[in-house]
Amino acid sequence: MIPRPHAAEPAAEPAILLAQVVKRYGAHRALAGVDLQVRRGEKLVICGPSGSGKSTLIRCINALERHDAGRIVVNGIALTNDEGTVQDIRQEVGMVFQHFNLFPHLTALENCMLAPRLNRGLSKAQAEKLALAHLERVHLADQARKYPARLSGGQQQRVAIARALCMEPRILLFDEPTSALDPEMVKEVLGVIEELAASGVTMICVTHEMGFARRVADRCVFMDRGEIVEEGDAARFFEAPESERLRHFLAQILR
Amino acid sequence: MNALPIDLALAWESLPALFDGLMVTVFLTALPLIIGLALAFPICFARMSARRALALPAEIFVVFFRGAPLLILLYLVYYGLGQIEALRNGPFWIVFGSPFGCAIVALSLNHAAYMVEVLRGSLLAVPHGIVEASEALGITRRNIFLWVRMPLALRYGLKAYQNEVVSFVKGTAIVSVVTITDLMAVANSIFEQTYDPFTPILCAAAFYWAFVNLIRVGFTVWGRWLSRHSAEDAVVAIPGRQGLGGVVVEAKVTP
Lengths: 255, 255
Hints:
Chain A: It comes from Ancylobacter vacuolatus. Chain A is of the alpha/beta class. Helices cover 38% and strands 24% of the residues of chain A.
């Protein structure tokens, strides 16, 4: 069992701090020195063309990708190569993937129970209660005993959200959560994420769902070629983009 | 001459001896399967290691013992090692001094070499995204292996494992060359006493067939149980090689 670190929480301290973060794949710089601060409870939307580094950015936050230079601090914990630090950060940060990545050999309920049982040593009964509560939150308590293969894409993604919530993270990362869904299922997933947003959790969401961004995001960030080109509150971001690159991008996706 | 190539009276008389031979075959199957599998795990981990100093010896082991014909391996262990005086006087002579010990060593090494590759292939088949999702949940590497990678690898690799076990059973027939009276040796001695080639050999074949099919049924039941998460769409009966029907266990993975 990994002890849950209790970072000091002065109100001013950001939930996530990135300073001059660089990530290279060979000669290619996926992140070219990114600076970003996310306040506690803030809802941040990141958009940008494919290959702009937005997925790489959020994957660096929970160390699925290791950054090559710069500083990443999550809830007061500086991310280093130390395996213990990485585990500490991952206890604080939940992640939802484009392709759901549910455990195919476990039911929806068991998918949600695995991490709490292994990481926090919960008993089966405790973990089940926790898992059911979070499945209820994503409106899937009635599907708890089904295997992922029996669920629709939208339902699978909601199970994936419940699975992340079961670790009771203070930060949630969404990596294009609706990009792999059929159009009619996008709404149910975004609806659940919007409900979560109201709960005060810190959220970073990589998405091209502009309506969602307007409703939920406190701030939008536009990335291109490994850098943050422009950021601002959602309304101004879409209505009055400053940079040519963002104008061009918005013209592309809103066509 | 009888219309049947089989002398039924001789077959009936031979049954007890053949059954004793079968028990030796079963023993010479079961023990090397256990030892070989136990050896295969650490060698597989070494083979998959990023460290060359671990991966290279493991690779050489696989190339050597998979490449060496079992008969030659058995001769080398049984006749070759006996030439080494130090071994004859050492504590391991308990193993290498008996034909059984030698057969078990040779069969185990052969099985281990094949199983390293079966295991490696199965582990590599586990989708990377599912492993990443486990990492993001803060599950430790050891627990990811035990609860996610290995259970899925078992489902992907069950068919390959079944093939290896079945061909291994038949491979044990060569132990008769080092004076072990397994099923094949019993049949052979009856042939030499009676000059009836058909009766003992066909009876032995029937015993092998029964044994192999018992294994097949066991694997089928196991496979059904493992694939209960996708029972309708993943269990497909196909005519396997070596005259074996079986289940294809395909853990359904999204997308």
